[in-house]
Amino acid sequence: MQPFNFDEIIDRTKSHCEKWDKYQGKDIIPAWVADMDFKSPPAIIKALQERAEHGVFGYSAIDDETLQTIVDFIKRHYDWEIEKEWLVFTHGVVSSMNIAALCVKGESVATTTPIYPHFIKAPKFAGKEIIAITMKEENNRWSIDFERLEETITPTCKLFMLCNPYNPGGTVFTREELERLATLCVKHDMVICSDEIHADLILNPSAKHIPIASLHEAIAKRSITLMAPSKTFNIAGLQASFAIIPNDSLRRTFTQTMGSMVGGINLLGITAMKAAYQHGDAWLEALRVYLRENLALVQAFVAKNPKLKLLNQEATFLAWIDASALHVKSPYTFFLDFGVGLSDGTPFGDANFIRLNFGTQRAILMTILERMQNAMDSLKD
Ligand SMILES: Cc1ncc(COP(=O)(O)O)c(C=O)c1O
Question: Which of 101, 158, 200, 330 has the least C-beta neighbours within 10 A?
């Protein structure tokens, strides 16, 4: 018996909600931006209520107990021993990606594609060239094309931006893959900025998240690891995230680049983060069970529609579906016309794909899949 009710439907309209406001007044179910339709864990809600009751919301500060809570969470979940001093707080992982792209020297930045659009936007904003290596399909899973990466990297490329677990596609990189990438970074004297925001959302029970910086000292000292409780506990609107930078000099460069462009962390964000990391483990475990069952429904839907394709999705609540066999101009608008607002693959780098956010109540997901089936059936005549 699950102690948490993920089936409870929450009306998110009129709640300053980007996901649902987009299609306000239209019969379109949103399944795009990466937040979930669930309430956050009760411990977070309680902590926020208590903090709101306090009634004073001045500038924030992070206390030692919160720092220790983060250190403990990372040790408990990833067996990685970090130090409090390594933590740098920002309002979001995207801010940190931009700071990383700005602060690391070099004329170009390497990453993989298709990818979460800010991996391309951040280096561009920093005035850097982008070396984008297309992900390859291997053993029914999206993986890094290391040969291509090795061939393409140039001496002026001093930063690799990794997304692990991968968005979109849900790959959880193995120790071997991460070691190979780490070796490459050391060899080419590159810093690695590893966005691990989806780390807690591993759905494949035999996959394990390994922070690349935890591999060994040589990669740790050239790493900027980005984490947050935002995706995991559905608190993206509270804007609290952190970078873990073990190397003093790199950390100094990062914070100097940040300067006063990024102000103090959101007060309610700190409150929620502390409660999540202290008391959220049981909720998180139950969430993963629920998401796994949702993923199974998505997989079953794709299996009965041979014109759609979904590789082995190991993590995240975002299914990356290849719709190229539909031969429609835009798979995104094709499904939109049947009342489902998916993410368009175009900004990720492949217009033939759509991304389905299945972090929603089972009943809503069933309606989404029914509507998508209607769209598929319309092609059969
Ligand atoms: C890989 C990845 N990084 C970063 C973000 C956004 O992070 P934040 O809201 O903390 O800026 C997302 C949101 O979808 C994401 O998928």
Answer: 330
